[in-house]
Task: structure prediction
Amino acid sequence: MAAEKESDPKEKEVKKTTPKKAVPKKAAAPKKKAATKKTTAAKKPAPKKKAPSKKTVATKKAAPKKASPKKAATKNVAASKTAAQESPITDSIKKLFSGENKALFIGANLLFLAVIAIVLICVFSGGSGKGMILAFRDSDYEVDLYTVEYGKENRETVRILKNIDTFTGSSYLIKMNEGEWSGSISGAQFVPELDKIIFMYNDDGETIIEQMQFGKAEPELLFQTENEMTGFLYLDEGRLMIEEHDNNALCHYSDLKDEAERVVKSDTCHIKGPNNFLVEDNDDLFIYDVNRDEEIMLLKDIDDISNYYISGDLSTVAYIVEDMEDEQLFMLDKDGDEIELSDEIDRVARVFFQPGSNDDGLYIGIDKGDPGIYRFSEGNAIIEENYMTYLFDESGKYAIILAGSDYDDITIYSYNMGKDDLVEIYSGEELEFGFSDDPDSIFIVEYDQDDTVIFTCNVSGKGLTKIYDDDLNIANAYKIPGVDKLFNDIYDENFDFSLIVNSLDEEENFVLIEEWHDAQILNYSPDGRYFVFHGKEDQNDDHGLFIVEIKEDADIVELHEVDEDYFIYYNAVFTENGKYVLFSAQTGDAPEDTAVFEVHISGKENAVELFEEAVLEDVEWGDLVFESYRIYLSPATIH
Result:
Protein backbone atom coordinates (compact mmCIF):
# COMPACT_ATOMS: atom_id res chain seq x y z
CA MET A 1 0.00 0.00 0.00
CA ALA A 2 1.33 3.39 -0.89
CA ALA A 3 2.44 5.58 1.94
CA GLU A 4 -0.19 8.01 3.08
CA LYS A 5 0.75 11.66 2.48
CA GLU A 6 0.61 14.12 5.33
CA SER A 7 -0.43 17.73 5.06
CA ASP A 8 2.44 20.09 4.28
CA PRO A 9 4.36 20.62 7.53
CA LYS A 10 5.11 24.19 6.39
CA GLU A 11 1.43 25.03 6.33
CA LYS A 12 0.84 28.31 8.16
CA GLU A 13 -2.52 27.43 9.66
CA VAL A 14 -2.48 24.50 12.10
CA LYS A 15 -5.61 22.37 11.89
CA LYS A 16 -6.71 19.39 13.95
CA THR A 17 -7.43 16.88 11.24
CA THR A 18 -7.84 13.18 10.88
CA PRO A 19 -5.39 11.48 8.53
CA LYS A 20 -7.00 10.02 5.43
CA LYS A 21 -7.70 6.33 5.63
CA ALA A 22 -5.92 4.35 2.97
CA VAL A 23 -7.19 0.99 1.80
CA PRO A 24 -4.67 -1.68 2.78
CA LYS A 25 -3.88 -4.39 0.32
CA LYS A 26 -4.74 -7.90 1.32
CA ALA A 27 -1.80 -9.77 2.78
CA ALA A 28 -0.75 -12.67 0.60
CA ALA A 29 -1.56 -16.16 1.80
CA PRO A 30 1.43 -18.19 2.93
CA LYS A 31 3.02 -20.33 0.24
CA LYS A 32 2.06 -23.96 0.46
CA LYS A 33 4.66 -26.66 0.48
CA ALA A 34 3.79 -30.30 0.32
CA ALA A 35 5.28 -32.49 2.99
CA THR A 36 8.21 -34.52 1.76
CA LYS A 37 8.20 -38.05 3.11
CA LYS A 38 11.79 -39.21 3.41
CA THR A 39 11.25 -42.05 5.82
CA THR A 40 14.43 -42.92 7.63
CA ALA A 41 13.41 -45.61 10.09
CA ALA A 42 10.20 -47.55 10.15
CA LYS A 43 9.46 -48.79 13.60
CA LYS A 44 7.12 -51.09 15.40
CA PRO A 45 3.45 -51.27 14.63
CA ALA A 46 1.29 -50.05 17.41
CA PRO A 47 -1.85 -48.08 18.36
CA LYS A 48 -3.62 -44.78 18.12
CA LYS A 49 -4.47 -41.97 20.38
CA LYS A 50 -4.14 -38.30 19.77
CA ALA A 51 -1.04 -36.77 21.19
CA PRO A 52 -1.64 -35.34 24.63
CA SER A 53 -2.45 -31.66 24.43
CA LYS A 54 0.17 -29.39 25.89
CA LYS A 55 -1.17 -26.75 28.24
CA THR A 56 0.74 -23.53 28.27
CA VAL A 57 0.14 -21.18 31.17
CA ALA A 58 0.61 -17.52 30.39
CA THR A 59 0.93 -15.09 33.20
CA LYS A 60 0.58 -11.98 31.26
CA LYS A 61 -2.24 -9.81 32.55
CA ALA A 62 -4.56 -8.26 30.04
CA ALA A 63 -4.88 -4.51 30.37
CA PRO A 64 -8.48 -3.21 30.44
CA LYS A 65 -9.57 -2.01 27.02
CA LYS A 66 -5.97 -2.15 25.91
CA ALA A 67 -5.48 -0.97 22.37
CA SER A 68 -4.73 -3.81 19.99
CA PRO A 69 -4.70 -4.78 16.22
CA LYS A 70 -6.50 -4.84 12.29
CA LYS A 71 -5.44 -4.11 8.70
CA ALA A 72 -2.42 -5.29 6.81
CA ALA A 73 0.84 -3.37 6.78
CA THR A 74 0.94 0.35 6.06
CA LYS A 75 4.01 2.33 5.11
CA ASN A 76 5.78 5.16 6.82
CA VAL A 77 3.73 8.33 6.85
CA ALA A 78 6.20 10.40 8.85
CA ALA A 79 7.22 13.75 7.46
CA SER A 80 10.87 13.86 6.42
CA LYS A 81 13.37 14.97 9.01
CA THR A 82 14.51 17.87 6.87
CA ALA A 83 10.98 19.14 6.36
CA ALA A 84 10.27 18.75 10.06
CA GLN A 85 13.30 20.81 11.02
CA GLU A 86 12.18 23.64 8.73
CA SER A 87 8.59 23.53 9.90
CA PRO A 88 7.22 26.37 12.08
CA ILE A 89 5.01 23.77 13.71
CA THR A 90 8.07 21.85 14.85
CA ASP A 91 9.62 25.04 16.23
CA SER A 92 6.46 25.67 18.25
CA ILE A 93 6.50 22.14 19.63
CA LYS A 94 10.17 22.54 20.61
CA LYS A 95 9.36 25.68 22.58
CA LEU A 96 6.34 24.12 24.23
CA PHE A 97 8.42 21.16 25.44
CA SER A 98 11.18 23.36 26.80
CA GLY A 99 11.45 23.50 30.59
CA GLU A 100 9.98 26.98 31.09
CA ASN A 101 6.92 26.29 28.96
CA LYS A 102 6.10 22.71 30.03
CA ALA A 103 3.25 23.78 32.31
CA LEU A 104 1.87 26.08 29.61
CA PHE A 105 1.87 23.17 27.22
CA ILE A 106 -0.14 21.01 29.60
CA GLY A 107 -2.61 23.66 30.58
CA ALA A 108 -3.43 25.46 27.36
CA ASN A 109 -2.00 23.69 24.33
CA LEU A 110 -3.42 20.18 24.29
CA LEU A 111 -4.37 20.84 20.67
CA PHE A 112 -0.74 20.38 19.77
CA LEU A 113 -0.91 16.72 20.80
CA ALA A 114 -3.29 16.15 17.91
CA VAL A 115 -0.87 18.02 15.67
CA ILE A 116 1.93 15.73 16.90
CA ALA A 117 -0.09 12.66 15.93
CA ILE A 118 -0.46 14.11 12.41
CA VAL A 119 2.93 15.71 11.87
CA LEU A 120 4.54 12.77 13.75
CA ILE A 121 7.32 14.80 15.36
CA CYS A 122 7.48 14.46 19.13
CA VAL A 123 9.85 15.78 21.78
CA PHE A 124 10.30 14.69 25.40
CA SER A 125 12.61 15.52 28.22
CA GLY A 126 14.67 12.84 29.96
CA GLY A 127 14.78 9.16 29.11
CA SER A 128 17.16 6.78 27.42
CA GLY A 129 16.43 6.97 23.70
CA LYS A 130 14.74 3.58 23.48
CA GLY A 131 11.79 2.51 21.40
CA MET A 132 8.13 2.60 22.35
CA ILE A 133 5.01 1.38 20.57
CA LEU A 134 1.95 3.63 20.93
CA ALA A 135 -1.65 2.74 20.11
CA PHE A 136 -3.91 5.68 19.13
CA ARG A 137 -7.53 4.55 19.50
CA ASP A 138 -10.69 5.95 17.90
CA SER A 139 -14.35 5.77 18.90
CA ASP A 140 -14.77 2.42 17.10
CA TYR A 141 -11.96 0.88 19.12
CA GLU A 142 -9.80 0.79 16.00
CA VAL A 143 -6.22 1.90 16.51
CA ASP A 144 -3.18 3.11 14.61
CA LEU A 145 0.13 1.82 15.95
CA TYR A 146 3.23 4.01 15.91
CA THR A 147 6.82 3.56 16.98
CA VAL A 148 8.70 6.40 18.65
CA GLU A 149 11.98 6.81 20.54
CA TYR A 150 11.60 7.95 24.12
CA GLY A 151 13.90 10.71 25.30
CA LYS A 152 15.20 12.09 21.98
CA GLU A 153 14.36 15.47 20.52
CA ASN A 154 13.24 15.78 16.88
CA ARG A 155 12.60 12.07 16.60
CA GLU A 156 10.18 10.83 13.98
CA THR A 157 7.31 8.53 14.79
CA VAL A 158 6.58 5.81 12.27
CA ARG A 159 3.10 4.44 11.73
CA ILE A 160 3.40 0.69 11.48
CA LEU A 161 -0.23 -0.48 11.39
CA LYS A 162 -3.43 1.40 10.58
CA ASN A 163 -7.07 0.79 11.58
CA ILE A 164 -6.46 -2.49 13.37
CA ASP A 165 -9.07 -4.27 15.45
CA THR A 166 -8.79 -5.32 19.07
CA PHE A 167 -7.30 -8.80 19.05
CA THR A 168 -9.88 -11.47 19.79
CA GLY A 169 -10.08 -15.23 19.51
CA SER A 170 -8.41 -18.28 20.99
CA SER A 171 -5.22 -18.20 18.90
CA TYR A 172 -2.02 -17.43 20.73
CA LEU A 173 1.70 -16.95 20.16
CA ILE A 174 4.22 -17.95 22.84
CA LYS A 175 7.83 -16.77 23.08
CA MET A 176 10.37 -19.48 24.01
CA ASN A 177 13.98 -18.77 24.93
CA GLU A 178 16.51 -21.54 25.66
CA GLY A 179 13.65 -23.97 26.04
CA GLU A 180 11.82 -21.86 28.63
CA TRP A 181 8.55 -19.94 28.35
CA SER A 182 9.39 -16.26 27.87
CA GLY A 183 5.97 -14.60 27.58
CA SER A 184 3.12 -14.36 25.10
CA ILE A 185 2.42 -11.96 22.22
CA SER A 186 -0.92 -10.32 21.50
CA GLY A 187 -0.89 -7.01 19.68
CA ALA A 188 2.52 -5.45 19.02
CA GLN A 189 5.65 -6.19 21.04
CA PHE A 190 9.36 -5.60 20.88
CA VAL A 191 11.45 -8.76 20.77
CA PRO A 192 14.91 -7.40 21.65
CA GLU A 193 16.55 -10.83 21.33
CA LEU A 194 15.72 -10.76 17.62
CA ASP A 195 15.98 -6.98 17.15
CA LYS A 196 12.41 -7.07 15.83
CA ILE A 197 8.86 -5.98 16.54
CA ILE A 198 6.31 -8.79 16.24
CA PHE A 199 2.61 -8.11 15.62
CA MET A 200 -0.24 -10.55 16.15
CA TYR A 201 -3.67 -9.15 15.45
CA ASN A 202 -7.10 -9.76 13.92
CA ASP A 203 -8.21 -8.45 10.52
CA ASP A 204 -11.81 -9.24 9.57
CA GLY A 205 -11.69 -12.68 11.18
CA GLU A 206 -8.15 -13.51 10.09
CA THR A 207 -5.28 -13.89 12.53
CA ILE A 208 -2.17 -12.18 11.13
CA ILE A 209 1.44 -12.31 12.34
CA GLU A 210 3.91 -9.75 11.03
CA GLN A 211 7.40 -8.53 11.89
CA MET A 212 9.59 -5.49 11.34
CA GLN A 213 12.82 -3.99 12.57
CA PHE A 214 12.51 -0.88 14.73
CA GLY A 215 12.69 2.29 12.64
CA LYS A 216 11.52 0.65 9.42
CA ALA A 217 8.30 1.75 7.80
CA GLU A 218 6.58 -1.44 6.74
CA PRO A 219 6.00 -4.77 8.51
CA GLU A 220 6.58 -8.04 6.68
CA LEU A 221 3.93 -10.74 6.66
CA LEU A 222 4.86 -13.98 8.42
CA PHE A 223 1.54 -15.82 8.63
CA GLN A 224 -2.23 -15.47 8.34
CA THR A 225 -5.17 -17.81 8.80
CA GLU A 226 -8.93 -17.87 9.35
CA ASN A 227 -8.54 -20.92 11.62
CA GLU A 228 -7.44 -21.18 15.22
CA MET A 229 -3.70 -21.47 15.68
CA THR A 230 -1.03 -22.17 18.24
CA GLY A 231 2.29 -20.48 17.57
CA PHE A 232 5.72 -20.65 19.22
CA LEU A 233 8.42 -18.08 18.51
CA TYR A 234 11.81 -19.57 19.39
CA LEU A 235 13.99 -16.58 20.22
CA ASP A 236 17.30 -18.41 20.51
CA GLU A 237 16.67 -20.18 17.20
CA GLY A 238 14.99 -17.26 15.43
CA ARG A 239 12.16 -19.47 14.21
CA LEU A 240 8.37 -19.45 14.10
CA MET A 241 6.51 -22.76 14.46
CA ILE A 242 2.72 -22.83 14.02
CA GLU A 243 -0.03 -25.40 14.45
CA GLU A 244 -3.14 -24.42 12.48
CA HIS A 245 -6.27 -26.19 13.70
CA ASP A 246 -9.11 -26.87 11.27
CA ASN A 247 -10.72 -30.21 10.39
CA ASN A 248 -7.17 -31.53 10.43
CA ALA A 249 -3.85 -30.07 11.51
CA LEU A 250 -1.53 -27.96 9.38
CA CYS A 251 2.08 -27.37 10.41
CA HIS A 252 3.85 -24.17 9.36
CA TYR A 253 7.44 -23.05 9.73
CA SER A 254 9.38 -19.83 9.13
CA ASP A 255 13.01 -18.86 9.73
CA LEU A 256 11.75 -15.23 9.98
CA LYS A 257 13.31 -14.41 6.61
CA ASP A 258 10.19 -15.34 4.65
CA GLU A 259 6.52 -16.12 5.20
CA ALA A 260 5.73 -19.32 7.05
CA GLU A 261 5.31 -22.31 4.75
CA ARG A 262 3.12 -25.32 5.30
CA VAL A 263 5.33 -28.34 5.78
CA VAL A 264 2.89 -31.00 7.02
CA LYS A 265 -0.81 -31.69 6.58
CA SER A 266 -2.02 -34.48 8.85
CA ASP A 267 -4.57 -35.78 11.35
CA THR A 268 -2.70 -34.20 14.27
CA CYS A 269 0.35 -31.99 14.51
CA HIS A 270 2.18 -30.76 17.60
CA ILE A 271 5.21 -28.52 17.90
CA LYS A 272 8.20 -30.29 19.43
CA GLY A 273 10.83 -27.60 19.83
CA PRO A 274 12.22 -25.14 17.27
CA ASN A 275 13.02 -27.75 14.59
CA ASN A 276 10.47 -30.55 14.82
CA PHE A 277 6.79 -31.40 14.62
CA LEU A 278 5.27 -34.54 16.11
CA VAL A 279 2.79 -35.81 13.51
CA GLU A 280 0.11 -38.50 13.61
CA ASP A 281 -1.17 -39.37 10.14
CA ASN A 282 -2.86 -42.48 8.71
CA ASP A 283 -2.19 -44.37 11.98
CA ASP A 284 1.53 -43.58 11.78
CA LEU A 285 3.47 -41.51 14.29
CA PHE A 286 6.54 -39.65 13.07
CA ILE A 287 8.75 -36.63 13.69
CA TYR A 288 9.03 -34.09 10.89
CA ASP A 289 12.45 -32.40 10.97
CA VAL A 290 12.29 -28.99 9.27
CA ASN A 291 16.09 -28.73 9.06
CA ARG A 292 16.45 -31.91 7.05
CA ASP A 293 12.99 -31.77 5.42
CA GLU A 294 12.60 -35.34 6.60
CA GLU A 295 10.10 -37.61 8.33
CA ILE A 296 11.50 -39.89 11.06
CA MET A 297 9.10 -42.75 11.76
CA LEU A 298 8.41 -43.56 15.43
CA LEU A 299 5.44 -45.95 15.35
CA LYS A 300 3.37 -47.55 12.61
CA ASP A 301 -0.24 -48.74 12.86
CA ILE A 302 -0.99 -47.29 16.28
CA ASP A 303 -4.67 -48.30 16.53
CA ASP A 304 -4.18 -50.32 19.73
CA ILE A 305 -2.21 -47.65 21.57
CA SER A 306 -4.12 -45.54 24.08
CA ASN A 307 -1.38 -42.97 24.69
CA TYR A 308 2.26 -42.30 23.93
CA TYR A 309 5.12 -40.21 25.32
CA ILE A 310 8.26 -38.95 23.58
CA SER A 311 11.71 -38.53 25.15
CA GLY A 312 13.22 -35.05 25.25
CA ASP A 313 15.62 -35.78 22.37
CA LEU A 314 12.70 -37.22 20.32
CA SER A 315 14.58 -40.50 19.76
CA THR A 316 12.46 -42.78 21.95
CA VAL A 317 8.75 -43.35 22.36
CA ALA A 318 6.93 -44.98 25.30
CA TYR A 319 3.35 -46.09 24.76
CA ILE A 320 0.45 -47.73 26.58
CA VAL A 321 -1.27 -50.78 25.09
CA GLU A 322 -4.73 -51.73 26.35
CA ASP A 323 -5.71 -55.40 26.55
CA MET A 324 -9.24 -55.93 27.77
CA GLU A 325 -9.20 -54.37 31.29
CA ASP A 326 -5.40 -54.17 31.64
CA GLU A 327 -2.81 -51.67 30.47
CA GLN A 328 0.89 -52.17 29.84
CA LEU A 329 3.68 -49.65 29.21
CA PHE A 330 6.20 -50.36 26.45
CA MET A 331 9.12 -48.45 25.00
CA LEU A 332 10.32 -48.51 21.42
CA ASP A 333 13.90 -47.34 21.37
CA LYS A 334 15.78 -45.61 18.56
CA ASP A 335 16.81 -49.01 17.12
CA GLY A 336 13.21 -50.15 16.84
CA ASP A 337 13.41 -52.67 19.69
CA GLU A 338 10.40 -53.06 21.99
CA ILE A 339 11.04 -53.06 25.75
CA GLU A 340 8.46 -53.82 28.46
CA LEU A 341 8.45 -50.99 31.01
CA SER A 342 5.66 -52.38 33.19
CA ASP A 343 3.71 -55.53 33.90
CA GLU A 344 0.07 -55.81 32.90
CA ILE A 345 -1.71 -53.65 35.52
CA ASP A 346 -5.03 -51.90 36.00
CA ARG A 347 -3.85 -48.48 34.86
CA VAL A 348 -0.74 -46.57 33.77
CA ALA A 349 -0.72 -42.80 34.44
CA ARG A 350 1.59 -39.78 34.61
CA VAL A 351 4.41 -41.08 32.43
CA PHE A 352 7.51 -38.87 32.15
CA PHE A 353 10.94 -39.51 30.71
CA GLN A 354 13.73 -38.33 32.98
CA PRO A 355 15.03 -34.99 31.61
CA GLY A 356 18.19 -35.65 29.64
CA SER A 357 17.46 -39.38 29.27
CA ASN A 358 15.94 -41.39 26.45
CA ASP A 359 15.64 -44.70 28.30
CA ASP A 360 14.61 -43.94 31.88
CA GLY A 361 11.72 -42.27 33.65
CA LEU A 362 8.86 -42.69 36.12
CA TYR A 363 5.18 -43.56 35.92
CA ILE A 364 2.28 -44.03 38.30
CA GLY A 365 0.88 -47.53 38.10
CA ILE A 366 -2.29 -48.86 39.72
CA ASP A 367 -2.23 -52.62 40.29
CA LYS A 368 -5.22 -54.35 41.88
CA GLY A 369 -6.39 -51.00 43.18
CA ASP A 370 -3.07 -50.07 44.80
CA PRO A 371 -1.27 -47.07 43.25
CA GLY A 372 2.49 -46.66 43.29
CA ILE A 373 5.28 -44.73 41.62
CA TYR A 374 7.50 -46.95 39.49
CA ARG A 375 10.69 -46.55 37.54
CA PHE A 376 10.89 -47.74 33.93
CA SER A 377 11.56 -51.50 33.78
CA GLU A 378 11.69 -51.82 37.57
CA GLY A 379 9.33 -54.30 39.22
CA ASN A 380 9.07 -52.74 42.67
CA ALA A 381 7.38 -49.45 43.47
CA ILE A 382 9.47 -46.58 44.83
CA ILE A 383 6.53 -45.67 47.06
CA GLU A 384 2.89 -46.77 47.40
CA GLU A 385 0.15 -44.46 48.72
CA ASN A 386 -3.45 -43.54 47.90
CA TYR A 387 -2.69 -39.99 46.77
CA MET A 388 0.45 -39.10 44.85
CA THR A 389 2.10 -37.04 42.15
CA TYR A 390 5.65 -36.11 41.17
CA LEU A 391 7.70 -33.64 39.15
CA PHE A 392 11.30 -33.80 37.95
CA ASP A 393 13.63 -30.96 38.77
CA GLU A 394 15.25 -29.05 35.89
CA SER A 395 18.36 -31.24 35.80
CA GLY A 396 16.43 -34.51 35.97
CA LYS A 397 18.64 -35.69 38.80
CA TYR A 398 15.82 -35.55 41.35
CA ALA A 399 12.09 -36.27 41.33
CA ILE A 400 10.04 -34.47 43.99
CA ILE A 401 7.23 -36.81 45.08
CA LEU A 402 4.06 -35.95 46.98
CA ALA A 403 2.29 -38.96 48.49
CA GLY A 404 -0.16 -39.67 51.29
CA SER A 405 -2.97 -41.84 52.59
CA ASP A 406 -5.40 -38.93 52.30
CA TYR A 407 -5.36 -35.19 51.78
CA ASP A 408 -4.77 -34.47 55.47
CA ASP A 409 -1.80 -36.84 55.78
CA ILE A 410 0.79 -36.10 53.10
CA THR A 411 4.57 -36.42 52.87
CA ILE A 412 6.91 -34.82 50.37
CA TYR A 413 10.02 -36.76 49.30
CA SER A 414 13.09 -36.21 47.17
CA TYR A 415 14.05 -39.20 45.02
CA ASN A 416 17.65 -39.29 43.74
CA MET A 417 17.49 -40.98 40.33
CA GLY A 418 21.22 -41.71 40.22
CA LYS A 419 21.43 -43.29 43.68
CA ASP A 420 17.91 -44.80 43.72
CA ASP A 421 17.53 -43.11 47.11
CA LEU A 422 14.28 -41.76 48.62
CA VAL A 423 14.58 -38.97 51.23
CA GLU A 424 11.64 -37.71 53.30
CA ILE A 425 11.49 -33.90 53.36
CA TYR A 426 8.33 -32.98 55.29
CA SER A 427 4.98 -34.40 56.46
CA GLY A 428 1.85 -32.41 57.14
CA GLU A 429 -1.68 -31.47 56.09
CA GLU A 430 -2.78 -30.26 52.67
CA LEU A 431 0.72 -29.94 51.26
CA GLU A 432 1.70 -28.56 47.88
CA PHE A 433 5.10 -27.91 46.34
CA GLY A 434 6.52 -25.93 43.45
CA PHE A 435 9.77 -24.82 41.82
CA SER A 436 11.21 -21.31 41.94
CA ASP A 437 13.51 -19.45 39.55
CA ASP A 438 16.38 -21.10 41.44
CA PRO A 439 16.60 -24.58 39.83
CA ASP A 440 18.17 -26.05 42.97
CA SER A 441 15.36 -25.18 45.38
CA ILE A 442 11.68 -25.87 45.94
CA PHE A 443 8.89 -24.30 47.97
CA ILE A 444 6.52 -26.31 50.15
CA VAL A 445 3.21 -24.82 51.30
CA GLU A 446 1.10 -26.30 54.09
CA TYR A 447 -2.50 -25.31 54.74
CA ASP A 448 -3.68 -26.52 58.12
CA GLN A 449 -6.83 -25.45 59.94
CA ASP A 450 -5.42 -22.23 61.31
CA ASP A 451 -2.20 -21.29 59.53
CA THR A 452 -0.47 -21.13 56.19
CA VAL A 453 3.16 -22.23 56.43
CA ILE A 454 5.82 -21.91 53.71
CA PHE A 455 9.12 -23.81 53.66
CA THR A 456 12.02 -23.77 51.23
CA CYS A 457 14.71 -26.43 50.75
CA ASN A 458 17.18 -27.87 48.27
CA VAL A 459 15.84 -30.29 45.65
CA SER A 460 17.93 -32.98 47.39
CA GLY A 461 15.74 -32.51 50.48
CA LYS A 462 18.41 -30.79 52.55
CA GLY A 463 18.18 -27.43 54.28
CA LEU A 464 14.45 -27.33 55.05
CA THR A 465 13.72 -23.80 56.32
CA LYS A 466 10.44 -22.29 57.48
CA ILE A 467 10.08 -18.80 55.99
CA TYR A 468 6.41 -17.99 56.66
CA ASP A 469 3.82 -18.96 59.31
CA ASP A 470 0.62 -16.94 59.71
CA ASP A 471 -3.14 -17.31 59.84
CA LEU A 472 -3.65 -15.31 56.63
CA ASN A 473 -4.63 -17.08 53.42
CA ILE A 474 -2.15 -16.55 50.60
CA ALA A 475 -3.76 -15.69 47.27
CA ASN A 476 -0.53 -15.68 45.30
CA ALA A 477 3.13 -16.46 45.95
CA TYR A 478 5.78 -15.21 43.54
CA LYS A 479 9.34 -14.00 43.08
CA ILE A 480 10.99 -11.28 41.06
CA PRO A 481 13.82 -12.81 39.05
CA GLY A 482 17.12 -12.00 40.72
CA VAL A 483 15.55 -10.71 43.96
CA ASP A 484 16.04 -12.97 47.00
CA LYS A 485 12.57 -12.38 48.44
CA LEU A 486 9.26 -14.20 48.28
CA PHE A 487 6.17 -12.02 47.89
CA ASN A 488 2.75 -13.10 49.15
CA ASP A 489 -0.51 -11.45 48.15
CA ILE A 490 -2.96 -11.66 51.05
CA TYR A 491 -6.72 -10.99 51.17
CA ASP A 492 -8.38 -10.94 54.59
CA GLU A 493 -12.02 -11.64 55.53
CA ASN A 494 -12.97 -8.12 54.37
CA PHE A 495 -11.17 -8.69 51.05
CA ASP A 496 -8.63 -6.03 51.93
CA PHE A 497 -5.26 -6.50 50.25
CA SER A 498 -1.84 -6.85 51.91
CA LEU A 499 1.56 -7.63 50.43
CA ILE A 500 3.95 -9.63 52.63
CA VAL A 501 7.70 -9.81 51.90
CA ASN A 502 9.52 -12.96 53.10
CA SER A 503 13.18 -13.77 53.53
CA LEU A 504 14.30 -16.95 51.77
CA ASP A 505 16.63 -18.21 54.48
CA GLU A 506 14.75 -17.60 57.72
CA GLU A 507 11.28 -16.99 59.17
CA GLU A 508 11.42 -13.25 58.82
CA ASN A 509 8.89 -11.11 56.99
CA PHE A 510 7.35 -7.67 56.93
CA VAL A 511 4.22 -6.07 55.56
CA LEU A 512 4.91 -3.80 52.59
CA ILE A 513 1.29 -2.87 51.77
CA GLU A 514 -1.13 -3.38 54.66
CA GLU A 515 -4.92 -3.81 54.42
CA TRP A 516 -5.66 -1.64 51.42
CA HIS A 517 -9.21 -1.60 50.16
CA ASP A 518 -7.94 -2.07 46.61
CA ALA A 519 -4.42 -2.53 45.24
CA GLN A 520 -2.78 -4.14 42.20
CA ILE A 521 0.94 -4.35 41.46
CA LEU A 522 1.67 -2.98 37.98
CA ASN A 523 5.44 -3.34 37.71
CA TYR A 524 8.79 -3.26 39.47
CA SER A 525 11.90 -1.17 38.86
CA PRO A 526 14.86 -2.45 36.81
CA ASP A 527 17.00 -2.77 39.95
CA GLY A 528 14.24 -4.63 41.85
CA ARG A 529 14.02 -1.91 44.52
CA TYR A 530 10.50 -0.55 43.90
CA PHE A 531 6.97 -1.63 43.12
CA VAL A 532 4.57 0.68 41.31
CA PHE A 533 0.90 -0.11 41.93
CA HIS A 534 -2.54 1.45 41.69
CA GLY A 535 -5.42 1.37 44.16
CA LYS A 536 -6.77 3.13 47.23
CA GLU A 537 -6.12 2.55 50.92
CA ASP A 538 -9.68 3.16 52.16
CA GLN A 539 -13.00 2.70 50.40
CA ASN A 540 -13.74 6.44 50.34
CA ASP A 541 -10.30 7.46 49.09
CA ASP A 542 -9.61 8.56 45.54
CA HIS A 543 -7.93 6.06 43.29
CA GLY A 544 -4.26 6.68 42.59
CA LEU A 545 -0.89 5.49 41.35
CA PHE A 546 1.71 4.74 44.04
CA ILE A 547 5.32 3.66 44.45
CA VAL A 548 6.90 1.84 47.40
CA GLU A 549 10.46 0.76 48.06
CA ILE A 550 10.79 -2.93 48.90
CA LYS A 551 12.12 -2.59 52.44
CA GLU A 552 10.71 -2.68 55.94
CA ASP A 553 8.81 0.45 57.13
CA ALA A 554 9.01 1.99 53.65
CA ASP A 555 6.76 4.98 52.95
CA ILE A 556 4.18 4.62 50.19
CA VAL A 557 4.46 7.61 47.85
CA GLU A 558 1.60 8.81 45.71
CA LEU A 559 2.59 9.54 42.11
CA HIS A 560 -0.80 10.42 40.64
CA GLU A 561 -4.33 10.83 42.00
CA VAL A 562 -7.72 10.87 40.28
CA ASP A 563 -11.26 11.38 41.51
CA GLU A 564 -13.10 10.28 38.36
CA ASP A 565 -14.73 6.85 38.36
CA TYR A 566 -13.86 6.28 34.72
CA PHE A 567 -10.10 6.75 35.22
CA ILE A 568 -8.34 3.39 34.84
CA TYR A 569 -4.62 2.67 34.98
CA TYR A 570 -3.81 0.22 32.17
CA ASN A 571 -0.10 -0.36 32.60
CA ALA A 572 3.08 1.19 33.95
CA VAL A 573 6.80 0.79 33.33
CA PHE A 574 9.92 2.37 34.78
CA THR A 575 12.29 4.11 32.41
CA GLU A 576 15.55 2.28 31.86
CA ASN A 577 17.39 4.51 34.34
CA GLY A 578 14.63 3.95 36.93
CA LYS A 579 14.01 7.67 37.49
CA TYR A 580 10.58 7.98 35.88
CA VAL A 581 7.45 5.90 35.50
CA LEU A 582 5.50 5.92 32.23
CA PHE A 583 1.87 4.85 32.51
CA SER A 584 -1.23 4.56 30.34
CA ALA A 585 -4.71 5.40 31.55
CA GLN A 586 -8.33 5.73 30.51
CA THR A 587 -9.11 9.42 31.08
CA GLY A 588 -12.75 9.65 30.03
CA ASP A 589 -15.87 7.75 29.03
CA ALA A 590 -15.16 7.51 25.28
CA PRO A 591 -12.89 4.77 23.87
CA GLU A 592 -10.44 7.37 22.58
CA ASP A 593 -10.17 9.08 25.99
CA THR A 594 -6.76 7.65 26.82
CA ALA A 595 -3.35 9.13 27.49
CA VAL A 596 0.27 8.26 28.22
CA PHE A 597 1.89 10.04 31.18
CA GLU A 598 5.34 10.46 32.68
CA VAL A 599 6.01 11.03 36.40
CA HIS A 600 9.18 11.17 38.51
CA ILE A 601 9.50 8.41 41.12
CA SER A 602 9.95 10.98 43.91
CA GLY A 603 6.30 12.01 43.60
CA LYS A 604 7.38 15.64 44.01
CA GLU A 605 6.49 16.56 40.43
CA ASN A 606 3.12 16.45 38.72
CA ALA A 607 2.61 13.78 36.08
CA VAL A 608 3.09 15.10 32.53
CA GLU A 609 0.74 13.99 29.77
CA LEU A 610 2.93 12.92 26.86
CA PHE A 611 0.41 11.55 24.37
CA GLU A 612 -3.32 12.15 24.13
CA GLU A 613 -5.65 9.44 22.78
CA ALA A 614 -2.83 6.91 23.13
CA VAL A 615 -1.92 3.82 25.12
CA LEU A 616 1.52 2.30 25.61
CA GLU A 617 1.53 -0.98 23.71
CA ASP A 618 5.12 -1.94 24.53
CA VAL A 619 8.58 -0.54 25.29
CA GLU A 620 11.90 -1.84 24.08
CA TRP A 621 13.69 -1.80 27.44
CA GLY A 622 11.23 -3.70 29.64
CA ASP A 623 7.84 -5.32 30.17
CA LEU A 624 4.60 -3.39 30.52
CA VAL A 625 3.03 -6.09 32.66
CA PHE A 626 4.08 -7.49 35.99
CA GLU A 627 6.11 -10.52 34.86
CA SER A 628 6.93 -12.12 38.21
CA TYR A 629 8.15 -15.68 38.57
CA ARG A 630 5.11 -17.33 40.02
CA ILE A 631 5.38 -20.39 42.22
CA TYR A 632 3.26 -22.98 40.42
CA LEU A 633 2.24 -25.59 42.96
CA SER A 634 1.68 -29.24 42.20
CA PRO A 635 -1.74 -30.91 42.30
CA ALA A 636 -2.31 -32.86 45.49
CA THR A 637 -3.52 -35.96 43.69
CA ILE A 638 -3.32 -37.64 40.30
CA HIS A 639 -6.56 -39.63 40.33
Observations:
- The two ends are 57 Å apart (CA to CA).
